[in-house]
Q: What sequence folds into this?
């Protein structure tokens, strides 16, 4: 009897030691994320570029990933609306709100004065966001949206508008470092990294940081390849996708909306 009890105690001790020396396994069992994933990753793409249709969506689909695209009222949306509609249907990608005219702070950016965010009112930004939602609904037929703040800015003449539009969106993407933990995570002021001129190694390191903390890595891409400013090399982008594909069991890669809904459900 005593021997049996001692053996049981020894087994419990050995299991505790095993988890202590193998934290990855322990993290998976107690994971915040679906299916024991160590971290979540969101791949988001701003401004509705032609290269999102021609290069980004096809490579995402090649690796079996869904991205989140934040177009505004660009020529690409006007000239190729049927292709944007087909892309969303084909790949299960998310179309999110990035306003109509991409207003930003006039004191910080060289924007036309009529699109100076600091001259907007709460009512004006809300009306523009509502109009952008209507445009997106005409493309994909959906009514549930997330928002990407233009230039990661959310201050109008009357102050911070982020609290005034919560009834319109599931979540909103801002900018900032990877969270240390998920306690108090604000889905209407999420962190992200502006992925510009980064190598594949840099992008992967960002994901690994989220894995080590058990949190979320949100990428804010603009142009992939040589199709515009704020670009990232196609090779770097592909290296990131290869890493995510090779580690599907450890990393949950999904649309911004799906990841944010999961976070809200965990609260």
A:
């Amino acid at each position: 009897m005593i021997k049996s009890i001692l053996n049981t105690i020894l087994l419990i001790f050995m299991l505790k030691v095993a988890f202590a020396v193998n934290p990855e396994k322990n993290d998976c069992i107690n994971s915040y994320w679906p299916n024991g994933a160590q971290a979540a990753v969101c791949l988001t793409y701003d401004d509705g570029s032609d290269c999102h249709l021609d290069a980004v969506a096809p490579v995402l689909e090649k690796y079996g990933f869904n991205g989140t695209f934040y177009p505004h009222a660009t020529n690409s949306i006007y000239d190729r609306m049927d292709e944007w509609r087909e892309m969303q249907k084909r790949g299960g990608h998310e179309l999110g709100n990035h306003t109509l005219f991409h207003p930003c702070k006039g004191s910080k950016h060289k924007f036309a004065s009529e699109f100076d965010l600091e001259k907007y009112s709460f009512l004006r930004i809300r009306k523009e966001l509502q109009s952008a939602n209507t445009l997106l609904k005409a493309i994909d037929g959906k009514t549930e949206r997330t928002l990407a703040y233009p230039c990661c800015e959310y201050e109008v003449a009357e102050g911070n508008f982020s609290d005034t539009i919560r009834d319109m969106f599931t979540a909103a993407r801002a900018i900032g470092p990877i969270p240390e933990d998920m306690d108090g995570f604000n889905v209407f002021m999420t962190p992200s990294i502006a992925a510009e001129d980064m190598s594949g190694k840099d992008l992967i390191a960002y994901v690994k940081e989220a894995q080590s903390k058990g949190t979320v890595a949100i990428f804010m891409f603009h142009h992939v390849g040589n199709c515009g400013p704020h670009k990232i090399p196609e090779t770097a982008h592909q290296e990131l996708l290869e890493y995510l594909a090779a580690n599907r069991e450890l990393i949950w890669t999904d649309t911004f909306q799906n990841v944010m809904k999961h976070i809200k459900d965990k609260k």
Remarks:
- The first helix runs from residue 2 to 21.
